[in-house]
Design a protein that fits this description.
- The protein has 195 residues and is mainly α.
- The chain folds into two domains: 48 residues, Up-down Bundle (Single alpha-helices involved in coiled-coils or other helix-helix interfaces); 119 residues, AhpD-like (Up-down Bundle), CATH 1.20.1290.
- The chain is 66% helix and 0% strand.
- It is built from ten helices and no strands.
- Helix 3 packs antiparallel against helix 9, helix 4 packs parallel to helix 6 and helix 7 packs antiparallel against helix 8.
- The chain is globular.
- The two termini are 32 Å apart.
């Protein structure tokens, strides 16, 4: 039987919150899937595991936004996550989602460029426009207007895609702030992935 309790060397936030023990069966199964597919249980999941309702809410919205059917590719959604995290200087998400961009793009240089400054990356017009919109959501969401949405339509995004861009960017703005506020630490395994 796998155990997911954190010992002192596995502290994932600056808070003294204890993972539910024993974990509910459904949570154990979810963590087992993560271990099998990713080779680890992401620390963000361990951080939320002090309250299973909060963990379930987090994983539900994450899975819906990042893994469900969308006009946005998984890579594009990860690029949004990294762009938001770069602007917000969120260490956890830059490390974790930077690794995902490297893996999905099969290009570690592209992944690092987006981590540092997406404007320097060799992006097509669609991706560049998407990340410009993402930047505006993150920095000045109240300034977004119909011209901004039309720019996305002009490069091929549907209104449903625009909804997805806004939701992914909004989600990562929230998670960045939580991760930074509690000093959430990324799993060490992320640092070596897809380099």
């Amino acid at each position: 039987m796998k155990r997911y309790n954190m010992n002192s060397s596995e502290k994932v936030t600056a808070l003294n919150l204890t993972m539910v023990d024993p974990l509910p069966e459904a949570t154990k199964k979810y963590f087992d899937i993560c271990q099998e597919k990713l080779g680890m249980v992401p620390n963000v999941l361990k951080a939320y595991a002090f309250d299973i309702n909060k963990l379930d809410a987090f994983t539900s919205i994450y899975n819906e936004l990042m893994l469900s059917e969308s006009g946005l590719s998984k890579l594009e959604r990860e690029m949004i996550a990294v762009t938001v995290s770069s602007i917000n200087k969120c260490f956890y998400c830059l490390v974790a989602h930077g690794a995902a961009v490297r893996e999905l793009s099969k290009n570690p240089i592209l992944g690092e460029m987006i981590v540092m400054n997406y404007k320097m990356a060799p992006l097509d017009d669609r991706q560049k426009t998407m990340l410009e919109f993402t930047e505006k959501i993150t920095k000045n969401s109240s300034d977004i207007n119909e011209d901004d949405r039309q720019k996305l339509r002009n490069v091929g995004f549907s209104d449903r895609d625009i909804w997805d861009i806004a939701n992914v960017a909004g989600f990562f703005n929230m998670t960045n702030r939580v991760a930074s506020a509690v000093a959430m630490r990324p799993n060490e395994e992320y640092h070596e992935q897809s380099r």
